[in-house]
Specification:
Order of helices and strands: EHEHEEHHEHEHEHHHH
Distance between the termini: 11 Å
CATH topology: Rossmann fold
Largest sheet: 7 strands, mixed
Radius of gyration: 17 Å
Strand content: 5-15%
Bound molecules: adenosine-5'-triphosphate, magnesium ion
Number of helices: 10
């Protein structure tokens, strides 16, 4: 089982769009994917057409010390990948997650419950900023994808996320690989995009994925049931780009996943 965090401490860099469409592309290639929405704002949950669940039917159950060991896990079928939806209870729950061990809830789920669920890939969509949930995601993952729009603020956020991932690897999770940067919303006509792409490739070399995600209107309007670009137009630029990114990610992870 592969576990992937999608993180960038800067907002609006394509985390949720990448989580949805990478997961959809991986599912289309025959893999069983479970997405856990860890953003209290729950945009991924909304984007795939799922209404706001009650707390007990959301990813908040993974962080509930009173939850019973034999609880039914709230997992829905989006028609493409499986989803554990988010609820605003993640926000209020954060106040209780203040002990150092509270960064390990998700790791416990991955190690104790997830193997019997039969998924090939678990993918965690996280909110911008460093929260106990994004740390949980990194502590429970083998891989981290950092979507980065090639502009000043997202690049700074991506570099901060790289540092956080290094810290997590050193202190919490030695099994976390070096992050992969995924350039998103790339506009070939913009000079600053060309400059920041060159900067990232020069500084981070092989850690920047070869596949880029270009700007694509279909990606930004693909929401509702299905909620991914493949259910709207499988020939759109975004569909082609995310299929390439999913394939590259699998080969980067260098593991055979049984389909
Ligand atoms: N390749 C793309 N082309 C065009 N629009 C895109 C593309 N990728 C993302 N978008 C749009 O950019 C906006 C931000 O994307 P998204 O919600 O995926 O970012 P995010 O990092 O998850 O944001 P947040 O930090 O708020 O969770 C959305 O409106 C989305 O539809
Ligand atoms: Mg998001």
């Amino acid at each position: 089982m592969i576990t992937i965090s999608v993180c960038n401490h800067k907002g609006g860099t394509g985390k949720t769009t990448s989580s949805i469409n990478l997961s959809a592309a991986l599912s289309l290639s025959g893999l069983n994917v479970l997405v856990v929405d860890l953003d209290p704002q729950g945009f991924l949950t909304r984007m795939v057409g799922v209404g706001e669940p009650v707390p007990a039917a959301s990813s908040a159950v993974l962080f509930d010390p009173d939850a019973k060991a034999d609880r039914v896990l709230p997992i829905l079928d989006t028609g493409s990948f499986a989803l554990m939806p988010s609820s605003p209870a993640l926000s209020s729950g954060m106040r209780k997650l203040t002990r150092p061990v509270d960064v390990l809830w998700l790791k416990e789920f991955v190690e104790r419950d997830a193997p019997s669920l039969g998924y090939d890939i678990l993918l965690f969509d996280t909110a911008a900023a460093v929260t106990v949930y994004s740390l949980n995601a990194l502590a429970a993952s083998n891989h981290v994808v950092i979507p980065v729009l090639p502009e000043y603020q997202p690049v700074v956020g991506a570099e901060q996320t790289w540092q956080t991932a290094q810290m997590v690897r050193k202190k919490l999770n030695p099994g976390l690989d070096e992050p992969s940067f995924l350039l998103t919303m790339v506009d070939g006509r913009k000079q600053n995009h060309r400059s920041y792409r060159a900067y990232m490739r020069e500084k981070y070399g092989p850690h920047v994925m070869r596949q880029i995600i270009r700007t694509c209107t279909t990606l930004s309007i693909s929401h509702g049931p299905g909620g991914n670009v493949y259910s709207r137009n499988a020939h759109a630029r975004g569909a082609v780009d995310y299929a390439g990114a999913a394939e590259e990610l699998l080969s980067r992870m260098g593991r055979m996943v049984e389909a």
